[in-house]
Structure formats: C-alpha cells, structure tokens
Amino acid sequence: MRIGFLLSVPAIAATLVFAGCSEDSPSIIPTVDLVDAGQATCSFTPVSIHQGEPFDVQVEIRNLGNKSSGSFTVEFYSSSNTIISWLDHLLGSVLMGSIEAGGQATCALNVVNTSTIPVGNWYIGWDIDSGYAVNESDEDNNTNVKTGVLLQVLAPPNPDLRDRGETYRSFTPQTASQGAPLAVSCDIENAGTAGSGAFAVRFYASANTSIQTSDYLIGSAAMAAIPLGSYAACSLPAGDLSAVPPGTYYVGWIIDADAQVTELVETNNTAYKTGYQLVITQTATGWIGGASDGWKTSSAPPSASDLRSFNRPAGLCLDSAGNIYAADSENHRICKWSSAGAAIGWIGGGNTGWQTAGTSASGAGDHWFARPYGVFVTTGGDIYVADRDNHRISKWDGTGQLVGWIGGGLNGWQTGSAPVAGTDFKSFQSPRGIFVSSAGDLFVADTGNNRIAKWDGSGTAAGWIGGAADAWQTTAAPASGSDYRSFSQPSGVWADSSGNIFVADTGNCRVSKWSGTGTAAGWIGGAQNGWQTGTAPASGTDYQSFVSPAGIYVDATGRIVVADSGAGCVFMWSGLGNAYGWIGGGVDGWQTGTTASASGADYRRFQGPTGVFGNASGNLFVADCLNDRVSKW
Q1: Which of 161, 275, 322, 465 is the most exposed place for a label (fewest CB within 10 A)?
Q2: Can you tell me the distance from the alpha carbon of 410 to that of 399, in angstroms, rounded to the nearest whole number?
Q3: What pTM did the predictor assign?
C-alpha cells in the first residue's frame, strides 16, 4: 500500500497541468525530495576510537516526494563543525537503490580507513544524493550531522618510551682520562598506551645539552620490551671515551635510537645528566726522539743529528694519515715520523727525496734549509716550510721533491739561492709560522716584519695585516706595536673554517684574532677572560696569561691551543676567549694554577715548547724545543 501525504510546492508549480488534462482536473507534478528521517534514526558506534580502528554509521533516508527517486549516492564525512561540505574529511560512500514516494530506507557504512582522521573530536554527517543524480524539489536539505554527540578519535595505541627522571640518571667517574671506561645508567619508562617491543639506547658525550647523533658516541645498550606502565633500568658499564677529545661534556642518551618502536611521542627520547658534567683530561703518552723509535716516558734525550733524533724542533704538523712532520731547526731539515713513533726520513741538506742516513747542514740553495721553524702539510700531501734564516717559504711535494719558494720581492714560485730579507709586501724577514687554508691560501707569521702575510696558491702576495690598521695592506712592513691591531714578532698563525685568523703574538704576550677581511677582533691573555681590544698585556704566570706564545692550533670545535715557550706549558682557551687551563708541570690533566714551575725534562713537562698540533681524536703533539723531542698527550 502506498502512503499518501500532502506535499507543499511553490505556487507557480501548482498552476501547471499535464498535457491532455482539462483545466477542470489539474494534477500535481511528480517530484522527489530525499532527506534524513531525523536525529532519532541516525547514529554511529562506537563514539570513541583510536586511529585505524573501524566504526559504523547509519542514517534513515526518506523520500518526501510523490514519485520514486531512482538510485543515488550518499557520502559520509567527519567535520569540525555542523556544516557538511566536500572540504570535510570523506569517510566513504554508499550507493542506494530507488526509494518509492513516501518511502524510507536504511543507509549504513562501515568506516574502515580511519588512520587518516586527525586526532580530535568530530561531527559525523552525510550528503544525500552527493552526485546530484536525482532531480529533487529541494536540493538544500540533503546535508545534516548527528547532533549531541561527537566522534572522539584518539592516537593509535602505541608505547611512549622516555627517561624516568633525573633521580635515576648517573655516570662515573666525573673526571676521566681519554680512553678510560665510563659507567652510565638511567631508567626508561613506557608511558604510552601499549607495550613497546625491543629497542636500543645510544649514549653520547656532548658539548651542549642538545644530545644528537653527531655528538661523540660512547656506547649503546640493547633493551628488551617494556610493558605498558612499567619501567626498566638501562646501563652502559664501560663506555668508550677513546674518540672523545679532552674537554668538558654533558653525558646523555637517545632512547630507541634506531627508531625500532613506533611511539605516541617521538620527541621525548633524549635526556642527559643535568647535575654535573664529564671532564676528560689530557694525559701524557710520551715522546719521540733520542736516537730510537717508539713513544718513551723517560726524561728528555740529548740533542743529536741522526735519523731518530732532534736538535731544537720548532714547529710541527700532522698529515691526513697521522704522520708527524717536525721542523728540526738546528739540524736544518724536516723530519717525518709515523703515528706509531717510527722515524721515516727527512728532507733538506741539498738532497731530493726522503733521506734515512747522514746529516743535514744549513744551506741557501735549492733543497736546503737554514733553521726551518714552521711546517704545514696539506690534505694533498704538499709540504710548506717557513725557512726562517733563508727568509722564504718553501714548497715540497709528498715525495720530497722541491716545487719552489716564495719571497725576495717576487711573485710566483722560484728556484735558486735564497733571497735576502726584505720589508716590501712580497718579502719576508725571518718567517716562523705557516698555515695553508683548504682554498690554498698561505698565511705566514712574518716575525721580523711584525705582520701576518697572505699569499695565494700560485705564489702571489695578497698583502698583510698589522701596523695599527684594519684591512690587508701592500705597503712596506710596519713597526712593532702594542695596540690590538699591531704585532710584536708574531710566531704562529692559524685560520679556521670561517676564515678567522688567530695569531700567537709572541712579543705582546697574547693571542690575537682577526677576521678574514683583515679586521682585528681582539686578543686574549693578560689574566682575564674574553676578547680584549686594549693595548698588549704584561706577561704572567697564571692560567689566563701568556709569557711568550709561539705556536697555535685551533681544533674543529673552535678551542684554541697555544704552545707558550716562555711559560713552559701548553694552554687551551675556548672560542669565546675563556681560559680552560694548561698542561705540563709534571702532572696529567689541565691545570689552573700558576705556571711558574712548569718547565722540566720528565715526559709530562716541556721546556721552551714552540709548536703544537692536534688530531681528530683530541691528542695534542708538541714540539718540545729545548727538550729536543716531540711529545704526545
């Protein structure tokens, strides 16, 4: 039986008649109007789900028109408000069959793909005849929502691994030698909504409180699954500090470091011990020289001229393989030793190639040196030498063949006898320090000319800094000076990766810093921390002062290491200009007391150190000049 009902239509429609009907028997036009049957007939269950869990939604649809509807589509949406539109999140669609006039049908959808619904509370609604397949008398009543209740979408049930708290964190010892074992422990809890499964924890030494995989890895621990709401102890009984350079570090860890567990929160996996820090001290390894191979810990040897001895080594450098090059000044040669402490050979003395026998005399011609003071080896293996008494910078290849020299008022690499000292910007006067940048630029501590000179890789002079002025100069050499833009017999030079230039300003008892454009930034020393711009300080024996800084090295973290020949020790300062301490004095570790009695001959002391260089592992190598040896810490 059909169900009849009164349908209200616009007045204009009521005046129309079907063809063939008389004016005395008007008929109503057949229409369709699809609407939901009201709030009592629509529902969804459950009303709370985790992302990825299904739910069911149902709505009763009526045809208020006077003819059958034909088939049509219903689309279901989740919406942040009660207005349903195609901009909302589509949950799915149902193809409905025809509903007869006055009839009603159930439309039900099992929503399976809920992983894309954002976490939150949502209205559930629908759009009847979403594709406009049916011509309806009212097209504005096809959308609606279930009112009074919202769908709660929760994050999927996952674990949440995190550190249990400061009370359960520890490491011992707080002060350790490089390479010594470190014991670290912490508790890890699962504060999520499911058990975790197995995971790994990695432990790091970090220069700051941001623990990252780029920090120094000291070990890892494999952890078993942690049930929901439980916790477990995590320990590293013997962390490896061999790759951590001396310094002060935070000790921290990254939980689930390999991302083995999908967690509710992935940003709370790092933690560190906040109560104190780890101090890794510099420990003396020994020295090379003394007519034999290997690192030794006895007192200093006498000077000698054989292959395995030194006579006043002044400057040194390491190549990419860890080989050690020393400017053996009074033997007038450059010596090469392996990282294991075995003598490989020497260049100089009028010879070509590396020599393993005989001795080297002073000379001014090709393949000779006269008291070489500084040496630098590039990543390509080229060797640059500050040939002090020959007033030139020599270049040799890795096989020990001379390429040429610069100086003497000329541009370009020259061969032949050494030039005389000069004060023009293309000459040198007793150069001591040499540094070559990754771009191939040469920076020279032109000691007798009280300046730092710059040359390009082709051997062309670019200018110099010093002389109480900023910017690179091309005039004659300046006089020595004590203001912060002058030098007094500088001996060492270094340029960092940012182009900053650091100078061991020997006669002024300080270390100066300049920008790559030749602008003076300030100096450190004088019994205070921080970069200063006043006149040169007096010498001093406290850990924040210098006596005669001679050699300089800046590591990858920006720490400044200085060999102070007058103080008989090696200093370290931070990039901010804060004194860290000094090594020497017969004990291991960085000291902050007076340097007055630092000098000596045992293996943990220096006497007139003039050169210093470091490696990526934090070891320091020192040209212990007056002890006729090269030391390693």
Answers
A1: 275
A2: 26
A3: 0.71
